[in-house]
């Protein structure tokens, strides 16, 4: 659905897609927007176009509120609902923004709080599904419809689960202290659940 415009490494590499009806670019003939095409590029993103604007390299009027990008050490980030995400790709023709979470903690740290977006700006594409991460569990139980792993809490490796099925998440969740719901690509979720992908392969 589109809205109109008005594990070691596990949590750092989960990618999800956001879709948005990008408005048409501002006219390049307009003098006000003549400085909106900077030569500066942030890694592989190419030219930053409307509704996005590159903070520190383009004036605010070059983009739309809520769509400012920051480039530091060659990595572009965007702030969504008070959280920073890594910008992996922008497809202007398909109107898809591909982002991933940023791992600010230790390599095997447990996940961040729930990831949410502002529905007035963007929506998830149909390729995304909600997954539940259960962590700080009392013990590990092998279950065919879950992916078990460990993550670090308070310097201890704690049993944890990745689950897509809500009823199973509730069942296993009774044995865990914390749960996080986060959007992930359906293909990644299924690859983890059928064990054709593990956290070392991400």
Task: Outline the fold blueprint.
Elements: H1 10-13, E1 15-19, E2 53-54, E3 68-72, E4 75-80, E5 83-91, E6 96-101, E7 123-124, E8 128-137, E9 146-153, E10 156-163, H2 166-173, E11 176-185, H3 186-193
What key phrases describe this protein's structure?
polysaccharide binding, mainly beta, signal, Alpha-Beta Plaits, disordered N terminus, four-stranded antiparallel sheet, WAK_GUB, 2 domains, 35% strand, 202 residues, Wall-associated receptor kinase galacturonan-binding domain-containing protein, 10% helix
Uncertain spans, ≥5 residues at pLDDT below 50? 1-15
Strand percentage: 35-45%
Q: What is the succession of H and E elements?
A: HEEEEEEEEEEHEH
Radius of gyration: 19 Å
The coarse overall form would be elongated
Count of extended strands: 11
Tally of domains: 2
Average pLDDT score: 73
Q: CA-to-CA gap between the ends?
A: 28 Å
What's the helical proportion of residues?
A: under 10%
Give me the secondary-structure category.
mainly beta
* Count of helical stretches: 3
What order do the strands of the largest sheet run in, or round the barrel if closed? 2-3-4-5-6-1-7
Largest beta-sheet details: 7 strands, mixed
Membrane topology: Single-pass membrane protein
Main location: membrane
GO molecular function: polysaccharide binding
Keywords: Signal
């Amino acid at each position: 659905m589109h809205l109109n415009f008005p594990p070691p490494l596990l949590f750092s590499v989960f990618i999800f897609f956001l879709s948005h009806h990008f408005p048409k670019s501002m006219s390049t003939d307009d003098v006000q927007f003549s400085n909106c095409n900077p030569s500066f590029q942030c890694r592989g993103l190419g030219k930053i176009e409307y509704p996005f604007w590159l903070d520190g390299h383009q004036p605010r009027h070059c983009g739309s509120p809520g769509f400012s990008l920051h480039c530091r050490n060659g990595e572009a980030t965007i702030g969504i609902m008070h959280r920073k995400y890594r910008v992996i790709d922008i497809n202007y023709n398909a109107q898809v923004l591909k982002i991933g979470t940023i791992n600010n903690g230790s390599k095997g740290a447990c996940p961040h709080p729930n990831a949410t977006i502002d529905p007035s700006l963007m929506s998830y594409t149909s390729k995304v599904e909600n997954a539940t991460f259960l962590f700080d569990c009392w013990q590990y139980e092998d279950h065919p419809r879950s992916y078990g792993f460990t993550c670090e809490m308070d310097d201890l490796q704690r049993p944890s689960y990745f689950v897509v099925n809500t009823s199973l998440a509730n069942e296993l969740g009774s044995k865990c202290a914390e749960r996080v719901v986060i959007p992930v690509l359906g293909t990644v979720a299924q690859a983890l659940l059928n064990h054709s992908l593990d956290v070392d392969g991400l």
